[in-house]
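dude i think i finally got it to work??
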Amino acid sequence: VSDSSKTESYNLQTSCDNSLDFGYGSRFIPFKENLMSYVTSVKAAIEKKKWNEVIMRHNLYIAYCFLSMQFCLAYRPRNEIPFAFAEFCKDGYVVINDKLSHAYREDRYLPAASTLNILAGNMQRGFDRVRRYMARKINPQMLRFEPELFFFFLAEDGSPLEFSLKRLLGFLEVAGLPYPFDPKMPRHYMRTYMYEHGVSHEIANAFMGHHHVAKEPFGITSALCYEEFIKMLSSVIEGAISEIGLSPVSYLPEGNDLY
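look at this
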């Protein structure tokens, strides 16, 4: 193993160091510079993919959307993501129930941050053009494909693949962008960000989907009203995702799709 490879490996390990600098903190939280660098690399990889690499571009775009959703909505890492293609981020809000528990059902009605809204809209408007390109160049059967769910991948022959975390990590690996963080990292990062920026525990718990017996967010014992929650939460989330560089990218490649 070369010295540069050893250095890179060490940097990835230390990026998740449970440093006292994080205060509230978690061992899953990377240094912000490492996180910003990875986000920038994924965006750059998407933007470089032209029409003849539209399948890889789609798969990286889905990975980027998932990462953005994890930060914007504190979404738990799950294989099954039940958001309908046309309904995801509709009207700027998302209903989430991502906790695998028989004891608690944690429905969250959260505002989708501007980045996630734009990413969803870009794909919803652009997929028909991608589908027609693939039908003409790769797989004629794609003309019949109408996506039911927003999160799906594409195989090399253009056929749809169900979303899974394993596939997500695999496509990032193939693109030369192995995911260096724990799958739960975005939730831990956002919870710590809120702690560091003075967000009350009640607002943070409502965002994260943390319910406690006799103290459910917006319940009878809660002093939190939904309008106040949305107003305070939105500005904090927008600040966090801006800070780490999560900005919109185009779903469609630039240039002509007729070659």
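Residues 4-23 have pLDDT under 50 and may be disordered.
im so relieved honestly
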